[in-house]
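Q: I'm building a small set of examples for a reading group on sequence design. Run inverse folding on the following structure and report the sequence directly after it, with nothing in between.
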């Protein structure tokens, strides 16, 4: 569940969405534009997604009635509390969450005096070079891997585009293993055979996630990607654990559901030769 408290922002999803919203807001983007971008990147938005989006829009005095009504429906139907029960939350925490949500709705229904001021932000550089091969430990004790498809030096946010692979080895993978690996295609939960490809912000990496990853080298990436481009469908996140968690969940899912069909990493890193078209 990625939750450490009953407050609106005390979970991974909310922390990521809130950070993404205000990174864009502080860069001069309008709240309506940010809202559409986040919704587009999160088509399966959870309750925490809608709560956090509503909070950010309220703080910037731009909360539309449809988002408010959506949040009101979630809270008044107690559907969020049902989710907490499904994840075996304690009765004490469920009661606390109910109070938090009721107060949150009252807050959203009130009018903020002034919109949150934009902060002046300095340009950030990506953590990893394009082509970096990242390894990490899986829950089964083996090593998994992710590949940096792109390093963003243009937007000022310093994104890294990273794809999780199907690497699952007892010993540390080599660069050769990355060159011939397959992409992780997720079919667990609500995922419908989709590759896990995400743009990651650098801001939380050093303090929260650096010890989880080891860069063992680089492979050539012939294709280019941009954060605002249409070359590939990818989400945005500040939570680098999202490189690892899908691999763990997918491997567990496949124990009882069979292996999900994947595809070669070549599709994401190599240009087609002229004789391959048609």
């Amino acid at each position: 569940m990625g939750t450490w408290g009953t407050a609106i922002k005390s979970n991974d999803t909310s922390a990521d969405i809130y950070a993404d919203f205000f990174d864009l807001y502080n860069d001069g983007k309008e709240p309506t534009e940010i809202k559409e971008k986040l919704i587009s990147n999160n088509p399966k938005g959870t309750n925490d997604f809608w709560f956090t989006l509503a909070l950010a829009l309220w703080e910037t005095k731009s909360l539309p009635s449809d988002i408010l009504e959506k949040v009101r429906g979630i809270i008044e139907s107690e559907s969020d509390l049902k989710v907490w029960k499904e994840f075996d939350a304690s009765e004490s925490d469920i009661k606390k969450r109910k109070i938090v949500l009721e107060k949150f709705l009252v807050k959203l229904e009130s009018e903020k005096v002034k919109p949150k001021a934009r902060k002046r932000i300095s340009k950030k550089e990506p953590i990893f070079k394009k082509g970096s091969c990242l390894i990490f430990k899986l829950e089964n004790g083996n090593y998994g891997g992710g590949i940096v498809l792109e390093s963003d030096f243009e937007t000022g946010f310093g994104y890294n585009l990273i794809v999780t692979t199907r690497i699952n080895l007892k010993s540390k993978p080599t660069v050769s293993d990355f060159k011939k690996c397959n992409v992780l295609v997720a079919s667990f939960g609500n995922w419908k055979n989709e590759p896990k490809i995400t743009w990651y912000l650098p801001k939380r990496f050093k303090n929260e996630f650096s010890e989880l990853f080891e860069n063992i080298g680089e492979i050539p990436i012939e294709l280019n990607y941009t954060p605002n481009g249409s070359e590939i469908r990818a989400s945005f996140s500040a939570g680098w654990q999202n490189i690892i968690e899908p691999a763990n969940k997918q491997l567990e899912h496949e124990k009882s559901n069979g292996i999900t069909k994947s595809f070669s990493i070549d599709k994401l890193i190599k240009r087609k030769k002229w004789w391959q078209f048609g």
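The radius of gyration is 20 Å.
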